[in-house]
Amino acid sequence: MLQQDSNDDTEDVALFDAEEETTNRPKKSKIRHPVASFFHLFFRVSAIIVYLLCELFSSSFIACMVTIILLLSCDFWAVKNVTGRLMVGLRWWNHIDEDGKSHWVFESRKASSQESKTVSEAESRIFWLGLIACPVLWVVFAFSALFSFRVKWLAVVIMGVVLQGANLYGYIRCKVGSRKNLTSMATSYLGKQFLRQTTGDDQPS
């Protein structure tokens, strides 16, 4: 069932092809998609290594830049379209309707007892660790390049922040729901805290 957010034209839906991934295997901590897990980390870690070491092995800035951008692009495509769906049952994408209006769709596998069996705890940890840690490193590289006046590397570093940050944002939206749901959660939490504080103040000393 599609639920469309009227504020930002986004949709939070169940993963439409989740049935293809559902099996009766018990939930274990072992890695069930080793190839996907490998490439989830390979491209993004390789891009960071090339960025850190390329000047030691090559004097050509253009060759280093092209190599890093290719690795970042491969990582963006693989994480967005493959590893997220296989490893944690999440996917985000964009489509254009008949009126030419753009819609962002954030898909997640419904948390039923049977479908949760397809998610490996080890794969989930690998997925989120790589998804969060690498963009943080690119942000650190951005500040380092800025303060050390390595202006020529800023474009490459910003590309890393944008591409990997986009995947991080997309999968967080898949995980926690739409912005409307986030607002409701925050409002509910603040309301509970206010009531708790009010109740505590009303108690006789």
UniProtKB/TrEMBL annotation:
Superkingdom: Eukaryota
UniProt keywords, alphabetically: Membrane, Transmembrane, Transmembrane helix
Predominant location category: membrane
Annotated region (Disordered), positions in chain: 1-27
Membrane topology: Multi-pass membrane protein
Signal peptide range in chain numbering: none
Name the record gives this protein: Golgi apparatus membrane protein TVP23 homolog
